[in-house]
Every structure is written in C-alpha cells, then in structure tokens.
Design goal:
- The chain has helices at 16-27, 39-52, 67-81, 104-132, 153-173, 191-204, 208-217, 227-237; strands spanning 7-10, 31-36, 57-61, 86-89, 135-140, 178-185, 249-252.
- β5, α5 and β6 (178-185) form a beta-alpha-beta unit.
- The chain is of the alpha/beta class.
- Helix content is 48%, strand content 14%.
- The chain has eight helices and seven strands, in the order βαβαβαβαβαβαααβ.
- The protein has one domain (7-188, 225-252): 3-Layer(aba) Sandwich (Rossmann fold).
- A seven-stranded parallel sheet has the order 3-2-1-4-5-6-7, with helices on both faces.
- α1 (16-27) runs parallel beside α2 (39-52).
Length: 261
C-alpha cells in the first residue's frame, strides 16, 4: 500500500473497529499511537498488535471529550515519532432513545463526543500534515449519517454534521496533498452493536436473537459485517493507492443503505 514507515493516530482502538483498523495499518508497516479510556484494554491491544507485527505501538489513555487530552495525544505522538501522517478519528456513539427523551446535556454530550472531538483532532493534526505535504484523515462516522435510524436522533444529527466537516476540510487542505474521507459502517459485529440490540430487545420485550435476526433480514448480504471488513477500506483510504480520493463518504453496510448517493 506504500505506507510502510508512516505514523498514525488511531482513536478508540482498544477494541472493535478501531482495533481492527490499527491492526490493518500495522500489517502495512505503519507505526502508531492508539488511544482509548480503558488503560488495561488499551495496553493489551498494543501488545497484541506489536506481537503480530514488527511495528511500534504506543498506547495513550485519552478521553476524546476533553480537548486537553486530545492535544496531549497529538503532542506525545509527535514527540515519539516526529510526525503524523494518518489520522483515524473514531469514538463511541451517543445513547439511543426517543427524540423527546433527551435534554440539553444529552445533546451537548453527543456534540462533544462525536463532532467536537473530530474538530479538535483535525485542528491539531492538519498543521503537522501541511508541513509534511502529505496526510490522510479518515473519519469514522455511521450509516445513520446517510440514512437516519429509529430512536437514534443524537447519532443521526451529530454524525451528519461530521460529514459536513469532512467535506469542507477536504476542499481546504487538498492543495497540501492531504485527503479527508469518511466511512459510514452499517451493522458491524462490535460491542456497540450488541448493546443496541440488547436495548431494542428490552424495549420490544423480545429476545436478543430475534432482534439481531430482524436486523440482518434487511441487509442484502444477509449478515452483519466484521470489523476487519471496515478496516480494509480504512487502510486503503490511508494508502498511496487512494491518492486521488478525497471528500468522499463510503458506507460499509452490506448494501443496506438504499440511496443513490
């Protein structure tokens, strides 16, 4: 992929899609800092990836809702590696529920977690990429940004804002050889999906298995995705081979979204 020796920051990488992306980049020879809030899980993931590859992984505890910790994450990565070539923004989703059940604090939490964290990460990293004349930013979003989901008003709204941010940035930094793209995962087998399915099962007074079956029934490929299937796209977009792709939003959803764009 032409990115051996590059340096990345991969957020929320202790598990799920973040972990799969980190491993995928490591297999291409990318050194990186990975961040999460759970120190034990983060260090375990770093050890697993280092053991499976020949790259250097730095685990950095960071709460992406805090600007000071994002700044420290970037500074520590630069101190250790000297530069940053690839940024994977990623964060857990906000709570689900009926639209009128959320107050101002809930909305503020969602904005800070999913939108402002992306703004802050990009703001810290883009000047570094500009000095290098090369960069890849991949924002992990959600299919909810393209096709709103029931009982997910917070995610539907804030994730769509990230797409607006990504498209705007892609226009502003293209002349510096920096690409900005977004990935919208569909139903991917992660802890997050399991939590959503269990909550829906409780609401519907149904079983976990029945709710999961109802979800996969709507997917043309008739199954949920795997984290590594999302990672494959992220690694490609981070590579030299994707040098003429920017400002795009690509779903990895087994064909679930029916829209043309």
């Amino acid at each position: 992929m032409g990115i051996a020796g590059k340096t990345a920051i991969v957020c929320a990488a202790s598990r799920g899609m973040g972990k799969a992306i980190a491993l995928g980049l490591a297999k291409e020879g990318v050194n990186m800092a990975i961040c999460a809030r759970n120190e034990e899980a983060l260090r375990k993931t770093a050890h697993e990836i280092e053991s499976a590859t020949s790259v250097k992984i730095i685990p950095i505890m960071a709460d992406l809702k805090k600007g000071s910790e994002i700044k420290s994450l970037v500074e520590e990565t630069v101190d250790r590696f000297g530069w940053i070539d690839i940024l994977i923004t990623n964060a857990g989703g906000p709570p689900s529920g009926p639209s009128l059940s959320f107050n101002d604090q809930d909305w503020e939490y969602a904005v800070v977690l999913n939108l402002l964290s992306t703004v802050r990460l990009c703001r810290e990293v883009i000047p570094i990429m500009k000095r290098q004349g090369w960069g890849r930013i991949i924002n992990m979003v959600s299919m909810a940004a393209k096709q709103p989901l029931p009982d997910m008003i917070l995610s539907n709204s804030v994730r769509a804002a990230v797409l607006g941010l990504s498209k705007t940035l892609s226009q502003e930094v293209a002349a510096d050889n920096i690409t900005v793209n977004s990935i919208c995962p569909g139903w991917i087998l992660t802890d997050r999906l399991e939590s959503i399915v269990r909550k829906q099962a409780e609401t519907r007074h149904d079983s976990y298995e029945n709710v999961l079956a109802s979800i996969t029934a709507d997917i043309p490929l008739k199954r949920c995705g795997k984290p590594e299937e999302v990672a494959n796209l992220a690694v490609f977009l981070a590579s030299e081979r994707a040098s003429y792709i920017t400002g795009t939003t690509i779903q990895v959803d087994g064909g679930l979204i029916k829209g043309l764009l």
